[in-house]
Amino acid sequence: MRTSELRTILLAASFAVFATAAGAAPPAYIQSCADCHGNNGISADGKFPTIAGMSAFYLEGQIEAYQKGQRPCPKTSDPVKKAETDMCDIAKKLTPDQVKETAEFFAAQKFVAAQQPVDATLAAKGKSIHDAHCEICHSDGGSQAIDDAGILAGQWKPYLVTTLAEYHDGKRIEPEKMKPQTKALSADDIKALAEFYAGEESK
């Protein structure tokens, strides 16, 4: 068993035990994530990714990236203050323990693919691009949470297009080994990759 797989299982199990023992709903700072990411992290809005089922290691890293301003900070509404806020502000309010608990909670949820149409011709082109440039880190068509690289399979196309464009334009921090791959993508390549991932199933 891979180290990342074991880590994900242990983190999910530990949170499940915590939740059962507590016998209560998740804390407000976790429940508030539903405003954008949907109940239990299953998004109903193409602008926001489904985060359910992603590895805790990956999710914790993304929250910390927001805290450090290493990712673009999409605007959202604060239902309590009835004012506009952004992901960086939300993330900065979390303590290290809260970041860990939030990541563990969503890692323990089941990923549900977004229901959206897929262009088969574009998806075939996207598969070729994925196989040549992305499969080494995003195995099985981007479907494996144990890769610690998010879940791309079944993800919303609008979010995928936006994210890949941010990587391409240098607006979002990425691993060094990804940079030459994303920099080489054209706008059409990005759309094709999004179609391919949208048609895949998470595992």
Provide a descriptive summary of the structure in words.
The protein has 203 residues and is mainly alpha-helical. It has 2 domains: 3-107, Orthogonal Bundle (Cytochrome Bc1 Complex, Chain D, domain 2), CATH 1.10.760; 120-199, Cytochrome c-like domain (Cytochrome Bc1 Complex, Chain D, domain 2, Orthogonal Bundle). The chain is 52% helix and 4% strand. The chain has helices at residues 3-22, 28-31, 34-37, 56-67, 87-92, 96-107, 120-133, 139-142, 157-168, 179-183, 187-199; strands spanning 75-78, 83-86. A two-stranded antiparallel sheet has the order 1-2. Helix 1 crosses helix 6 (96-107) and helix 4 (56-67) packs across helix 6 (96-107). The longest helix has 20 residues, at 3-22. The protein is globular. Mean pLDDT is 87; it is low at 3-22.
